[in-house]
């Protein structure tokens, strides 16, 4: 171990850059429009739709079920 370290060329932040989230902008925009009309946030609107689907269909929410719900909602709009 050194007795002194120099950080004059050091940079703040993560050592390895994060790839970030991927987004389906068309889906998010659809739910933003619906949420604005309902007077809520788009994430709240997405959760409402997913809960409604789970209750009405009595099924666990799998990735395939999620995709089907999103397709149904986009088609209904």
Roughly how many Å is the radius of gyration? 21 Å
Q: Could you tell me how far the N terminus lies from the C terminus, measured between alpha carbons in angstroms?
A: 63 Å
Low-confidence stretches: none
What coarse outline follows from CA principal-axis ratios? elongated
Topology order in helix (H) and strand (E) letters: HHH
* Largest sheet features: none
Tally the helices: what do you get?
A: 3
Q: What's the number of extended β-strand segments?
A: 0
Class inferred from helices and paired strands: mainly alpha
How much is the average pLDDT?
A: 83
Q: Report the portion of residues in β strands.
A: under 5%
- The residue fraction in helices comes out at 55-70%
């Amino acid at each position: 171990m050194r007795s002194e370290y120099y950080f004059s060329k050091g940079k703040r932040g993560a050592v390895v850059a994060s790839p970030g989230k991927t987004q389906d902008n068309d889906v998010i925009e659809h739910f933003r429009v619906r949420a604005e009309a309902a007077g809520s946030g788009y994430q709240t609107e997405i959760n409402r739709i997913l809960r409604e689907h789970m209750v009405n269909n009595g099924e666990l929410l799998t990735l395939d079920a999620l995709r089907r719900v999103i397709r149904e909602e986009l088609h209904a709009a």
